[in-house]
């Protein structure tokens, strides 16, 4: 039985997810964090533009979570030290928003190994494409 996708109606925006992506990187502004590797965890929600599924069907263009994962892995592998999780979050948001099919993005970056009593500490930012 073939599905008729035209009978379905979008209810809000679709969201492409990346959850719990862990990478090892040099990060931290404290002296004790310099010259050592720490685990950083990423959770990303990429809000697509209105009509995303129709655009995918008609053009073949899409939002690739693999591109975002590759961006993060390459940035981590570059070996440069990053002072703040805020800098990571902004870089990921900037990259994700280069895809015209993404209208907004939420990026959570946490360091899970800072406090034994906490699952993680970090930041969550939300960014969107400027109004045209």
TrEMBL record:
<feature type="domain" description="Dihydroneopterin aldolase/epimerase">
    <location>
        <begin position="16"/>
        <end position="127"/>
    </location>
</feature>
<comment type="similarity">
    <text>Belongs to the DHNA family.</text>
</comment>
<dbReference type="InterPro" id="IPR006157">
    <property type="entry name" value="FolB_dom"/>
</dbReference>
<keyword id="KW-0289">Folate biosynthesis</keyword>
<comment type="pathway">
    <text>Cofactor biosynthesis; tetrahydrofolate biosynthesis; 2-amino-4-hydroxy-6-hydroxymethyl-7,8-dihydropteridine diphosphate from 7,8-dihydroneopterin triphosphate: step 3/4.</text>
</comment>
<keyword id="KW-0456">Lyase</keyword>
<dbReference type="InterPro" id="IPR043133">
    <property type="entry name" value="GTP-CH-I_C/QueF"/>
</dbReference>
<protein>
    <recommendedName>
        <fullName>dihydroneopterin aldolase</fullName>
        <ecNumber>4.1.2.25</ecNumber>
    </recommendedName>
</protein>
<dbReference type="InterPro" id="IPR006156">
    <property type="entry name" value="Dihydroneopterin_aldolase"/>
</dbReference>
<dbReference type="Pfam" id="PF02152">
    <property type="entry name" value="FolB"/>
</dbReference>
């Amino acid at each position: 039985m073939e599905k008729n996708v035209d009978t379905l109606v979008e209810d809000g925006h679709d969201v492409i997810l990346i959850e719990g992506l862990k990478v090892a990187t040099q990060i931290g502004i404290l002296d004790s964090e310099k010259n050592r590797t720490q685990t950083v965890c990423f959770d990303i929600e990429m809000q697509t533009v209105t009509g995303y599924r129709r655009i995918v069907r008609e053009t073949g263009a899409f939002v690739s979570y693999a591109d975002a994962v590759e961006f993060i892995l390459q940035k981590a592998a570059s070996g440069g030290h990053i002072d703040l999780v805020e800098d990571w979050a902004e870089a990921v948001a900037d990259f994700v928003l280069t895809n015209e099919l993404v209208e907004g993005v939420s990026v959570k970056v946490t360091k899970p190994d800072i406090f034994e009593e906490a699952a993680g500490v970090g930041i969550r930012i939300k960014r969107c494409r400027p109004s045209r």
